[in-house]
């Protein structure tokens, strides 16, 4: 195989792999893999009501920064956000909270299990100003498997086509 054939083969492979990576990146950035909208600021309060700011990230219908009444709990906040998505892992909802002790501020992370609301105690529902709540998806889903298999199929097809083209030159 000549140097020209090798360069054609490498060029075709690079184009195919980079095209697949760009397509995956665009899907991830657009939010179409979760059906979620882009993050935004939501103000949910009556005039004159005392409010707090909460960050809500992850697998909810409308992630973003929420300005909500001080009486809002975790379940109410998720309701304001349109609820969790189908892929959401409600068994390990993480709450990051800045805690001040003496002269130091440190972040403490709590994990709350929302998969059984009837077993949830009152304290677990509490949120505080500045909290960041993160709802993740299961570590590995069928969608992830499909993405990996599709990418492997595209790369295999690109390599096969490049080999066939190189032999035909």
Structure overview:
The protein has 169 residues and is an alpha/beta fold. It has 2 domains: 3-31 and 142-168; 40-135, Outer membrane lipoprotein wza domain like (Outer membrane lipoprotein wza fold like), CATH 3.10.560. The protein has helices at residues 3-30, 74-80, 122-125, 142-168; strands at residues 40-43, 51-58, 64-69, 93-101, 104-112, 132-135. Strand 4 (93-101) and strand 5 form a beta hairpin. It is elongated and about 75 Å long. The N and C termini lie close together (10 Å).
CATH class of the largest domain: Alpha Beta
CATH topology of the largest domain, anyone?
Answer: Outer membrane lipoprotein wza fold like
The geometry reads as: elongated
Q: What is the residue-averaged pLDDT?
A: 79
What would you call the structural class? alpha/beta
Largest sheet descriptor: 6 strands, mixed
Can you tell me the number of structural domains? 2
Question: How much helix is in the residues?
Answer: 25-40%
Name the beta content range: 15-25%
What's the CATH H-level homologous superfamily of the largest domain? Answer: Outer membrane lipoprotein wza domain like
Secondary structure: number of strands: 6
Radius of gyration: 24 Å
Number of helices: 4
Runs in which pLDDT lies below 50 for 5 or more consecutive residues are 17-35
The N- to C-terminal Cα distance equals: 10 Å
Lateral strand order in the biggest sheet: 1-3-2-6-4-5
Please name the CATH architecture of the largest domain.
Roll
Q: Would you list the SSEs in sequence order as H and E?
A: HEEEHEEHEH
């Amino acid at each position: 195989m000549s140097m020209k054939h090798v360069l054609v083969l490498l060029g075709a492979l690079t184009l195919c792999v980079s095209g697949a990576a760009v397509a995956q990146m665009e899907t991830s950035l657009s939010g179409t893999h979760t059906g979620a909208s882009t993050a935004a600021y939501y103000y949910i309060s009556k005039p004159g009501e005392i409010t707090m700011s909460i960050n809500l990230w992850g697998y909810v219908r409308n992630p973003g920064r929420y300005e909500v009444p001080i009486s809002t709990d975790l379940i109410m906040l998720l309701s304001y956000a349109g609820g969790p998505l189908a892929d959401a892992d409600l068994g390990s909802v993480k709450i990051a909270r800045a805690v001040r002790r003496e002269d130091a501020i440190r972040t403490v992370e709590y994990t709350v299990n929302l998969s059984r609301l009837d077993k949830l105690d009152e304290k677990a529902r509490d949120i505080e100003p500045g909290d960041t709540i993160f709802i993740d998806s299961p570590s590995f889903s069928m969608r992830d498997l499909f993405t990996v298999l599709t990418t492997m199929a595209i790369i295999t097809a690109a390599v096969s086509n490049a080999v066939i083209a190189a032999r035909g030159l």
